Amino acid sequence: MTEQRFVHAQWSSRLAFILAASGSAIGLGNIWKFPYLAGDNGGGAFVLVYLLSVVAIGIPIMIAETMLGRRGRQSPINTMRTLAEEAKTSPLWCYTGWLGVIAGFLILSYYSVIAGWAMAYFFKINSALFEHIDAASSTRLFENFKASPEFLGIWHTFFMVATMFIVSRGVSGGLERLSRFMMPALLLMLLVLDVYAMNSGGFGQGLAFLFNPDFSKLTGAGVLVALGQAFFSLGLGMGSIMVYGSYLPSDVSIARSSLFVIAADTLVALLAGVAIFPLVFANGLSPAMGPGLIFETLPIAFGQMPGGWLFGMMFFALIFFAAITSSVALIEPAVAFLSENKRMDREKACLYSGLACWVAGLGTVFSFNLWSDVKWLDKTVYEWVDMLTAEIMLPIGGVLVAVFAGWIMSKADSESELKLQNPRHYQAWLILVRYVAPLGVALVFLDAMGLL
Ligand code: PFF
Prior knowledge:
Blueprint: H1 14-25, H2 28-40, H3 44-72, H4 76-86, H5 94-124, H6 135-146, H7 149-168, H8 174-198, H9 203-211, H10 220-234, H11 240-246, H12 254-282, H13 293-304, H14 308-341, H15 346-367, H16 381-408, H17 411-418, H18 423-448
Helix pairs in contact: 1-8, 1-11, 1-12, 1-14, 2-10, 2-12, 3-4, 3-9, 3-10, 3-11, 3-12, 3-16, 3-18, 4-5, 5-7, 5-14, 5-15, 5-16, 6-13, 7-14, 7-15, 8-12, 8-14, 9-12, 10-16, 10-18, 11-14, 13-14, 14-15, 15-16, 16-18
This protein binds 4-fluoro-L-phenylalanine.
Residues 24-25, 27-30, 104, 107, 232-233, 235, 238, 240, 326, 329-330 line the site of 4-fluoro-L-phenylalanine.
């Protein structure tokens, strides 16, 4: 597949699309964010709401977003403009695409900082300091690391440069070929950690925490966090799946590919949770430890297991890989837009967007040290960026996609695009995308605002 500028190239096969879409979906969201959010929000009830959101809202919107992308075949902004014209409705729909470009940019700004932590730990875990490390020392090492704006800044820089280098070389190529090996390897590594967790002494407690819902521990705000996490983890609501859909050949089943990606994404998140919480309880740590959770708990396991430094290095390398296949998707809408509309070289588009994103990321770097006390309404810069994107922009972007696909686009068009063999499946999708997804998101918003 060759890179083309204004007429997009297409994926060589269904597999290539699935690999790219799972690459976008599976990332820090599954391994780093899901466990820490579940820990912060009381466990089981949060996980249940997350799973419900994935099924009732994530599935129909993933199908809708891919479908819009394939029909429009351009960057999200231009796709929405073209589809709005086709449906003879307002061109204002192109702002859905804009929302996605901005959300992706903002997410990448902090995503890169956290991916930098994984890069740093890849090198650190090999050190004797981690041998038989206890919980207190692991926490201290992480706290020291986090306190240094220089270290955080340097790793953030490395990660951003790596992302922009890959993005500048086009959508296809080495990355998705590598995914064929890396994704199964990541799954295997999580299974190893799960087996380790089984024997850690905290397995029962860990599982109970994750899967025994206690609704008294979940607030309205927590429900919104769970919904936002469903969007974030699936990579929905900001146009990156739309971009990938735009490269999808027209004979591939959108529904089947989407279901596969969603199943894989959810499985990875749950396996990560099952690996981490037993360790949390076995070592007397608190599940509500915030963004440092996996960086403080997993090194304890690596420090204890034979050859742990090697497993540790492999684990952090795999996280880095999972993160970079997501970060490429996060910035792709912005780069695709700049190169289509501003007629910019792909390289230049990458340089500008990467640089701007790097600068924005410094806000997150400093949130963990210099600016840790700079708060507005009790939230740091990082917490604001995270909340605005995951809890507001992605769900709104997702609802706009659902409303457009369900109500604005003609049924004849969506039916012919989805080509579902069983008409009942099409009906089910239509009900989910027209009613369940938009109302579900609206209810969660109202609940979080305390209006329910
Ligand atoms: N889904 C990615 C993760 O779970 O890490 C993050 C992400 C990628 C969010 C792409 C949004 C997106 F468009």
